Amino acid sequence: MDRSPGADAKTNSDGYHTFDELYEHRHALFIALCRELAAARTTNPVWRSRLHADGTMFPDWFVMGINREHGQQITYHMPAYLWAETGCAETLDHAPEFDGHTPADVLQRLGRLAGAKVDTSPAGGVGRYGP
User: Fold this and answer.
1) Which residue segment(s) compose the domain that 124 sits in?
2) Which of 67, 94, 123, 126 has the fewest beta carbons under 10 Å from its own?
């Protein structure tokens, strides 16, 4: 992988996938999960917003999430061209106040949705699933 200054991270590859491809997969998987949760009418509300809670947003992006409560949120920024694909989500004027979740928190919360344990301890490494 080329990590030199000025290298284009989007086209960097591990020999199998570029960062762009991996992000497209993440977007597709998250939208599929949100559609399933919305269709099942679970207690995990799916939402989207063109604005953060403070009224800001990155150009050409929106935020999509599962759950609104602090300690339960799973959120991802999504490219604006995917807005039409996310009609399963309730559209909010502003996203809920960010609860400060980390990537490790999101992995644990995703694991809980799937009924799996996720070991994010330093010894276990981020994202190791257990029974």
Assistant:
1) 101-131
2) 123
Find the range with the poorest average confidence among 9-23, 31-45, 63-77: 9-23
In this structure, the answer to whether residues 80 and 118 fall within a common structural domain is no
Tens of pLDDT, residues 55-94: 999 999 999 999 999 999 999 999 999 999 999 999 999 9
Q: Is the CB of residue 116 less than 8 Å from the CB of residue 122? A: no
In the chain the first and final C-alpha atoms are separated, in Å, by 34
- Cα separation, 81 vs 60, in Å, equals 8
Q: Which residue carries 């991996």 as its tokens?
A: 22
pTM, 2 dp: 0.81
